[in-house]
Amino acid sequence: xxxxxxxxxxxxxxxxxxxxFFIDNGIKYEEINTGNKWAEDFKPKMPFGQAPLLKDLxxxxxxxxxxxxxxxxxxxxxxxxDDIKEIAKVDMICDHIEDxxxxxxxxxxxxxxxxxxxxxxxxxxxxxxxxxxxKAWGTDYIASKISxxxxxxxxxxxxLVILSATCLDAFxxxxxxYDRMASRPALKKYxxxxxxxxMPVNGNGKQ
Length: 207
Hints:
CATH class of the largest domain: Mainly Alpha
Mean pLDDT: 97
Low-confidence stretches: none
EC number: 2.5.1.18
InterPro entries: Glutathione-S-Trfase_C-like, Glutathione-S-Trfase_C_sf, Glutathione_S-Trfase, Glutathione_S-Trfase_N, GST_C, GST_pi, GST_superfamily, Thioredoxin-like_sf
Protein name: glutathione transferase
Pfam families: GST_C_3 (PF14497)
Oligomer: single chain
Organism: Mercenaria mercenaria
Radius of gyration: 17 Å
């Protein structure tokens, strides 16, 4: 029986990190496609008028906003650090992810043809910060063990590697991390599936 529902469009977008969380941890969930009758049936019921939305079927609670959703799951499912320094690490990386994701989304939806090259060039500076931190921390994951934040970062790196296949080549520690996450057995199996391969990255077909 499903423990959660994920309400989202049939694309990776802002729902993919949550999917990764569920799949890697063997958590049963049901996905509701909001693309059908979005304006009539779904948007009016969303707390902020947008998807995704997470429903906890065990207690009836609903959580909007993708980062709030995955933090909720991390706390509830034991994938949230206990140590205050480790909490700071995952928070720092998640905030930096948004510093990259925001411009990425604007480029994809508003300025793909003219903005792609400049965005790719900007990645060198932004990714080097993560590379330096990962080298200094010396752990396999962002914290001492896997946490909700690792699924966020895996999702972002997926998008960036699709956009620019060589964007991680100058960052061996980050590339090794990406390969490590993508090779986790449940994630590897899912990522090799036709379901995953056929799912659009973004809603407008740009990637």
